[in-house]
Amino acid sequence: MGYMMTSYENIVILTGAGISKESGLNTFRDNGGLWETHRVEEVATPEAFARDPALVHRFYNMRRQNLQTVEPNPAHDALALLEAEHKGNVIIVTQNVDNLHERAGSKNIIHMHGELLKVRCRACAMVMVTENDISDEMPCPACGFAPALRPHIVWFGEMPFQMDDIEEALLKADLFISIGTSGNVYPAAGFVQMMRQIGRGHTVEINMEPSEGVSYFHEVHHGPAGTLVPQYVDRLLKADYKA
Ligand code: OAD
Description:
The chain is an alpha/beta fold. The protein is built from 10 helices and 9 strands. The chain has helices spanning 18-21, 34-37, 40-43, 46-51, 53-67, 74-85, 100-104, 163-172, 191-198, 225-242, and strands at residues 10-15, 89-94, 109-111, 114-121, 127-129, 149-153, 175-179, 202-207, 219-222. The radius of gyration is 18 Å and the shape is elongated. The two termini are 19 Å apart. The mean pLDDT is 95.
């Protein structure tokens, strides 16, 4: 701590798997993380899906089902409170495919890596919401094509969603907070560097440990998001109150 708190006009918050860890969802790169138990190339690439769609569907079906067993934690709750109470704008850009930000009450969210609860037709591109298991035999409810459905997830080698909207938000941001992300996966890992190039926003990292990009941040707090994020939001809202 020890930084002067000011009231910010446009806050952009980048979140990663670490923010959902205390809800009981695995991260990707920590001990016991998803990429320790599943090889990325087997489940999270277009090539993997072409080779073995059943395996890829099973992986995402499992994660979709698992979502129903977890709840938002105090870090998600604090960000929803910030959006509701802050005088300026708050946008969450999440790499997470879970729905814990929504369930905590956040509204202004970009899911740059897609969403577990959505599937997309490979033929007509229709995006559908589902809580159910998906198999490769299912025809698309919209166009009838089969095999049709794939997870609405951005796989390695694919372009993240809404990059234009994200860039626009970063260009306007006077505060950028990165929470629970290891800084390994681009373009998200490069957002803090973009902020430094733009040169006008304050940049903050909240993560269990220093991320790959830690040296780019003006301010860093290392520890569990469930404790540190509510504290940080409290300081932001107090600064609003004084402004
Ligand atoms: P990672 O698993 O790479 O990083 C999670 C970070 O969260 C690590 O730096 C942990 O130290 C930190 N962490 C763990 N528990 C925490 C806690 N309780 N509080 C705060 N921090 C904690 O996950 P991401 O950076 O989100 O992409 O990974 C980025 C992308 O790589 C994912 O979106 C996914 C993956 O491959 C796709 O699937 C496209």
